[in-house]
Amino acid sequence: MADKNDRREFLARTVLGTAGAAAALSLEERILLAALQEGAPQKSQAPADDRPMPYGQIGKLKISRMIIGGNLIGGWAHSRDLLYVSRLFKAYNTDEKVFETLALCESHGINTVQLDPACINVFHRYLTERGGKMQALVCIHPDADAGKVKSQIEDLLSKGATFLYTHGEATDRQTMAGRLDILAKTIELIKQAGVPAGIGSHSLETPMQCEAQNVGADFYVKTFHHDQYWSATTPENRQEWCWYLPQGHEAGSYHDNMWCLDWKKTAEFFKTVKKPWIAFKVLAAGAIHPRMGFPFALRNGADFVIVGMFDFQVAEDVAMFKDAYYKVGNQREREWYA
Questions:
Q1: Which residues contact 237 (CB under 8 A, 6 or more apart)?
Q2: Are 153 and 164 in contact (CB under 8 A)?
Q3: What is the average per-residue pLDDT within 225-240?
Q4: How far is CA 31 from the centre of its chain?
Q5: How far apart are CA 105 and CA 102, in angstroms?
Q6: Residue 95: pLDDT above 80?
Q7: What is the pTM (predicted TM-score) of this model?
Q8: What is the CB-side half-sphere exposure of residue 259 using CA atoms within 13 A?
Q9: Of 100, 122, 287, 297, which shows the fewest CB atoms inside 10 Å?
Q10: In terms of C-beta density within 10 A (0-12 exposed, 13-18 middle, 19 or more buried), how is residue 35 classed?
């Protein structure tokens, strides 16, 4: 801690007063310097924010409009070409740390976590061993074998899942194959289990086709972020389905750095959808600052946002989300649908 404070003092004392010195700083140091100039807090956790967490409703469920994402828990890191990050996430997020993080989220008003089925066991332990009250939005894999899908649903609900949606990549692949019938059957099976059923996707083609063919989703879980960050895929390489096409990766045109290819088209489409929209990847996996990403998503129509957070980010992220929510209010074109 002393080294970190010394570094900040050095930057504030020497660089701010030295003409041209900022040009020699690393990107990390320039970000820190900008924060110092703006007077931004440098604490790992911001003070508790007394403003109420906003909630929406899907079916009979009361859901915090800010949902903690599960990728950091499972170790799925969209870290561009940094190969060690996934292992680092897993090493940091031990079961005990996951319990602490979920409890911290609850204390700040977040009542829902988004999870991959691979994380359901540690979540179940949080509920049963720690008395957690968190709800879980869990993705499932649509499949032509209805028995397999039904088994997934039963297993996840028995371990604490609260409501379900179809996994983004698996869903997009069914759309690519023209198998919306599989998606419709999966939604039907989820509803038969008595919980809200959603469609997840990276591609805008999926919700567009699902709405056109009346697949029956209660809500959508769709990526959404702007493209004003330096590692964003260049416009000429934003090919539909680029996340899944081998030639896109072989040619180097897609760099695991963009999940919403056309935010304007996405926002315009969801103006026509009178169902809740849960936006994820709203920070482009850490490339966009929350102070920009949160108001952007809410102002352009998202009803909820999913945000991956480490424990030391929760309080500050919640405060920034509340700032965005209360400033946006009803000053947006799309109605709130939850």
A1: 248, 253, 254
A2: yes
A3: 89
A4: 23
A5: 5
A6: yes
A7: 0.85
A8: 24
A9: 100
A10: middle
